[in-house]
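Worked Example 4.2. Read the sequence first, then its structure tokens.
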Amino acid sequence: MIIIPDHPRQDLWCEHFQIKDAEFIALTAKARVTIQLLQLNRLNRIEERQLLSEAGILDFSKFQ
């Protein structure tokens, strides 16, 4: 089966993803593919999101 990654201009973020403790959680197959292809949950990317959140630059509540 071929699964097309999330398209940010066509798909609603909240239908496919959640974010918990700076880690992306996939809600759909599209999200799983997107997270894997873009390596969104690599340790260094999670740490970067945590630092941005602690600095007040990234607000996770906007992603809920």
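Now turn to a second chain, presented in exactly the same format:
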Amino acid sequence: MARPDSGYMVDRSGTPGRNRRWLPWTGVGAALGALVWTAIPWLRRATLGTRPYVGTVFDVGSLGGWLLMAGGLVGFRLAYGDRYGRLGRASVGTTAVGMSLVALLYVRSVLAFVRAGLRPVPATGEDPAGLVLTWAFLLGFGLILAGTGGLGLALRRVDGGLTLTTGLLVLAAVLPAVAVGLRFGAVLPLPVGRLLVGTNVAFVPLGAAWVALGYRVWEEYRR
């Protein structure tokens, strides 16, 4: 029979319906994808240094991790249906649009890597599309962070209070905004500012939040 409140189909024995058995694995995939996506910039920095590249093999890994994270968002939407209300629906949509924009940026880097014969493509000179890409990056992650924070608040209503997952989702939205604001306000020490600009440390909370969200999706389907 069906659970109308979650949109998740189960059979009479309470086990997942055949057409939905893959859904718990969207949560597992989201958690693994988040770990990969969070770790890859550090591996790239250790391997290739700080020189900018248009495309490398690491972008392939980032795209794969990112798509797994996006799959977790689909699983989350199907798991909770309308239980998280308008805020939850709006947050899922906002996050989905942001993730789509960022995915296109990763696809562009992967295509550059493939066209170069699977060799790293260093960034040379001015990229005519540089300004557009920068704004797409800022808009994409701005939407993702806003949506992630909204998901945390919406889940808090479902849970009836603060949980680890809801706390991480809200922090994932707040901490990067605060860090970037302090960086551009010249409040942070110079080494810390360079760390924020040169690595993805500001997005580590987002990766942690997505690991928790993935586990939450898996747990919801396995009940």
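Notes for the reader: Confidence is low (pLDDT under 50) at residues 1-19. The longest strand covers residues 53-55.
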